[in-house]
Amino acid sequence: MLETTRLRFEPISPKHLEDTADMFCTNNRVMASTLKGSVFTRSEFDSLLHTDFINEQEPVFGFWCVILKESNRFIGVSGIHKIKYQDKEYCEFGFILNDSHWGQGFATEIGHHWISYAAETLQLDQIIATVSPHNLASRRVLEKLDMKYMDQVTSEDRGDRIILGRTL
């Protein structure tokens, strides 16, 4: 089972589908600095659920629901996936948390989990994360995780992104 001290990761399933859709489709504050930079329509969200970005074929890759163990409550999504930037393949981790759970150390806890998982289980030698240049709080979390600036890119579907990486 994928878990941290306070969190459990569960596959996106009907059990948490409406919570996930609510965050992606109605929470402007959260979605302003992630993925496409704005909330999704329900149709866009349903399409996203069927992409490799969210649901990769290999176990572990893709996004998972983040559940607060203490209350069994959905608080966001997180995961690790394969991605290509500038003709090089990487494994990238990310997190999108409901704003009611910002500032409580969950993003740092999630980052530690994926970094350890990438090193110990996947035996990767590097991991990356990307962040919107405007999302200073998430960038600070990534820097606290010893991730270093690598580059800045513009992607058609995700806009401007700063790439931070860490050798494992």
Keywords:
single chain, 168 residues, 4-stranded antiparallel sheet, 3-stranded antiparallel sheet
Give the C-alpha Rg.
Answer: 15 Å
Helical content, roughly? 25-40%
Give the rounded overall mean pLDDT: 90
Compute the number of strand runs. 7
Strand content: 25-35%
**Spatial sequence of strands, sheet with the most strands:** 1-2-3-4
SS-derived structural category: alpha+beta
Number of DSSP helical runs = 5
Q: Segments where pLDDT lies below 50 for 5+ residues?
A: none
Oligomer classification: single chain
How would you characterize this protein structure?
- There is one protein chain.
- Helix content is 29%, strand content 35%.
- By secondary structure, it is α+β, with helices and mostly antiparallel strands.
- The strands form two sheets. It has a four-stranded antiparallel β-sheet with strand order 1-2-3-4, sandwiched between helices.
